[in-house]
Amino acid sequence: MTTTEPLDVQPTALALLLLGREADPRSERGVECPGDLPAPSDPDLVARARAAKARLGDRVFVLGHHYQRDEVIEFADVTGDSFKLARDAAARPQAEFIVFCGVHFMAESADILTSDDQRVILPDLAAGCSMADMATAEQVAECWDVLAEAGVADVTVPVAYMNSSADIKAFTGRHGGTICTSSNARRALEWAFGQRPAGGGKVLFLPDQHLGRNTAVREMGYSLEDCVVYNPHKPNGGLSAGQLRAAKMILWRGHCSVHGRFSLESVEDVRARIPGVNVLVHPECRNEVVAAADLVGSTEYIIKALDAAPAGSSWAIGTELNLVRRLAKAHPDKQIVFLDKTVCFCSTMNRIDLPHLVWTLESLADGKVVNRITVDPETERFARRALEQMLALP
Ligand code: SF4
Where does iminosuccinate bind (predicted)? Predict the structure, then answer.
């Protein structure tokens, strides 16, 4: 369970923070795509962010997730995916404030991995993740009961994607499972299957069905029939005891609202438009998209693949648009396009903007700790156990 400190918000000169004072776990559902990023940053805000950051000096460490806006990335001390950023924060014990420009579950992970003296701040409390919200602690506990009823709980190992709440990570730690990222999902699954009698083990994969399915089927030779989808909104997950017993992979019915929108048609369309294009997608995409792509990999993999690509090559990238645009700018010698014309930014990531960052930095510099994210000690203990298991993966 996560708590936030009571807010002590004073109006700033520009009344910067109109939104995001309260946590709103449902906020990211059904959001509309703005179609494009807002206008470039107000130069006054840039100057104010610089001044506040300079006032804080080494006391603050700003983390910028790859999917953040350019105006925010400009102030990041380090960029990366969620796990790399949490580890970077833990490696900076002298930083009193970790300002996490990302989404809620990432700030929770940073709080779990950093020392008790470090305070993790999320500039907008409404920056959640729709995928993480698709698995609540109550739903997952109920699922485990269903598995127990079917007689399969003791041969099942939970594997939770990094993109999950601290509660789900703690559930995973309590039940002897591991966390995984999109880079090490295969190793996590191999480890999990190895924990139970040969051939008899199962994995409950949370909360992203696509990463679980793509890893098992594309990388490990399981069939689509080895996978079942547990729907938390149906009685018994919509599955019979026989289906649960026969399955190898029990996939939670969750998905990323950004990567889940890429379609087979978008792959076919880009191949028709750009002859010889390399299609490179994230494993959170649907199975048919991944099957039709040339390359599949995590955000870090995508960045490295484009770094290594020869000049003159063409690429269609299936991941978040802020990152794709930044990569296209960084590689003017290559043609880099977004895989789908209709997919928008991660709207919750985009809630962190320069006004919220300025408000956060100025508040901290003035001695007011705002939007702190804390994970309670019991949840932290078990979530850390699951994270440590990931670090110990062979
Ligand atoms: S890109 Fe997808 S998984 Fe990542 S924060 Fe946004 S909704 Fe969540």
Answer: 65, 82, 161-163, 182, 282-284, 299
